[in-house]
Amino acid sequence: MYKLTSKNKNNRNKDIGNRNIKLMDDQIFKLIFGRNESKEILESFSERILERKIRIKDILNGEAVADVEKGKEISLDIVAKTIDNTIIHIEAQNAYDRYLENRIKHYADRECVVHLKKGDSYRDAQKVISIAILNHKFYKEKPKIYKHEYQILNTKDYSVYDDKLLEIVIFDRLKKEYYDFNNSIDLIFMYLFDLLSPDELEKAIKEDELIKNIERRKNMISKTEEEEFLKLELEKREMMEKYRIEDAAKEALEKGRIEGIEKGKEEGIEEGRIESLIQTALRLKDKGFSLEDISDITGLSFEKLKNLTS
Fold first, then answer.
1. Domain match, 160 and 15 both
2. Which of 175, 195, 221 finishes a domain?
3. Residue 288 backbone class (left: φ over 0; alpha: ψ -120 to 50; beta: rest)
């Protein structure tokens, strides 16, 4: 078992908060927030980052499933249902993915209707709050902002189309200097992203109830659970690498196809232009123009013209 101790200042760096366990590792994140015994922790965490009252009824299975036969598989870190039947799913991610917005939107769209049964009305589709927590900066043009919120809007007056349908919130990582230790939302992200100094971490554990509870849960993770997490993490990384390679191959093929088309067009245009110049040169020759004059007019070389008229 992992232990949280603070015997003296000399060993504090080693012991406080167990620095070897990274909260943003997928399986660790699931072990801490995604189990039914973690319901209160997930509830408090969701309330803090969403800044509203949240009551969790169930934590659901978010492992990889396909939408339809041969459909794209998805895997969600956390899927929970609140007492008012809102679905909350949370994705924690360390690696940069430039298509992340599309992926989060796909996950959210699926969650809106996946819990409907045959015969249910679409009016019974549950509200979905889709949360992505990124251990890197995603929006480079917004260096001081870490919370990015999206809803479906009316394009005419930008009013919310349906506030019961879909909400997407993306949190990306800032430099430490942009966070405020005394702000509870900033503090939880400084803690998640491992930005706290040993002294700050010790203070946070003492003074912040949510962080104290997360640390308690973290230090209950057994070696068996850690080994299982490493196995699952490896499997997931292999799966994600497979998808990444497949996507890169498709993108390269598409790029090559487009470049081939463009090159063909350019070559076709160039061949047509040369053929037109040759026809012009032959007509000029018939009208008695010298090869030197024809070369000046058409830009064709003297040698090429000699071959054409010989």
1. yes
2. 221
3. left
Structure tokens at 106: 């796909």
For the chain, the residue count is 310
The verdict on residue 124 lying in a domain is yes
Q: Left, alpha or beta for 133 (phi > 0: left; psi -120 to 50: alpha)?
A: beta
Same domain, 161 and 217: yes
Please identify, among 175, 206, 221, the residue that sits at the C-terminal boundary of a domain: 221
Bridge partners (DSSP) listed for residue 128: 87, 166
Q: How far is CA 129 from the centre of its chain?
A: 16
**Dist CA 225 CA 75 (whole Å):** 19
pLDDT in tens, 96-154: 888 888 888 887 777 766 666 777 777 767 788 999 999 999 998 888 999 999 887 77
Dist. CA 109–CA 90, nearest whole Å: 14
pTM over 0.90: no
| pLDDT of 8 | 37
The dihedral of CA 272, 273, 274, 276: what is its sign? Answer: positive
pLDDT in tens, 191-246: 999 999 999 999 999 999 999 999 998 888 766 665 666 666 666 666 666 666 66
Neighbours of 137 (CB within 10 A): 14
Same domain, 111 and 156: yes
Question: Rounded to a whole number, what is the distance in angstroms from the first to the last CA of the chain?
Answer: 94
